[in-house]
Structure formats: C-alpha cells, structure tokens
Design brief:
The chain is α+β, with helices and mostly antiparallel strands. The chain contains two helices and three strands. The chain is globular and about 35 Å long.
Length: about 60
C-alpha cells in the first residue's frame, strides 16, 4: 500500500498571495474543511510546507 498524507484546508486563502492560492488549488483543495489524500513525495511535501499555515496535515496512521 502506498504511503499517503491527508491535508485539510482550515484557513481561507482570501488575502494570501497568489502563489499560495495556486499551491492550495494544485493540491486539490477548493473549499474550507475539504480533505484530500496525497502521495507522500518530496514534491508534495514541499507544497505542503509552503502553505502549512493554512492546512492541517496528518501522516501515516493518524490519517486513518
């Protein structure tokens, strides 16, 4: 089974820079409290790090 990371958008992107809004959108998050499962790759981790102040991230068993 592939390792995944669960990300939940908990803060609005309104008023944040355009690149951060684009990063949230590219993660597949469109609205508040939406949750997505993403593959645990260096690229995804970098994107999550960039917008970490807007998300709640769960890894491994905590995501289930």
């Amino acid at each position: 089974m592939a390792v995944t990371i669960t990300a939940t958008l908990v803060k609005s992107v309104i008023g944040h820079p355009r690149d951060q809004r684009a990063t949230v959108r590219s993660l597949g998050l469109r609205r508040m409290h939406q949750r997505v499962e993403l593959p645990d790759t260096p690229v995804v981790r970098g994107m999550l790090h960039k917008v970490r102040h807007l998300l709640v991230v769960e890894t491994g068993e905590a995501a289930k």
